Inverse folding.
């Protein structure tokens, strides 16, 4: 669900549809999260990073070092790992180790140098 107040800050909480059980008053439904929303999340991070002067945290489909790099290039100052942790309880620790190796391999000295580095036409 995309939430926001007018043109102000927004956040992405999965994308889906929620229905109400009229009799019990409970919410029921299903939605998408993780890799399924990554393209939407990347665009929202890019838009938010260009609209505000505060750090933006990227989330939505982050499970590999390349995902972290993409979100940071789009403007994220940090990332959150969510859905990947359901499948692998140590996904975050593994990602940090793999990201360190990725940076070494690609000669990236500081992740912060990537923030907002996406070039657009």
């Amino acid at each position: 669900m995309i939430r926001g107040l007018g043109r102000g800050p927004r956040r992405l909480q999965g994308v889906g549809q929620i229905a109400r059980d009229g009799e019990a008053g409970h919410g029921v439904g299903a939605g998408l999260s993780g890799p399924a929303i990554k393209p939407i999340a990347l665009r929202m991070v890019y838009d938010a990073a260009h609209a505000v002067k505060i750090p933006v945290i990227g989330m939505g489909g982050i499970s590999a070092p390349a995902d972290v790099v993409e979100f940071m290039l789009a403007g994220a100052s940090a990332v959150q790992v969510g859905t990947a942790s359901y499948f692998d309880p140590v996904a975050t620790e593994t990602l940090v180790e793999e990201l360190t190796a990725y940076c070494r391999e690609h000669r990236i000295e500081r992740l912060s140098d990537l923030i907002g580095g996406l070039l657009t036409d």
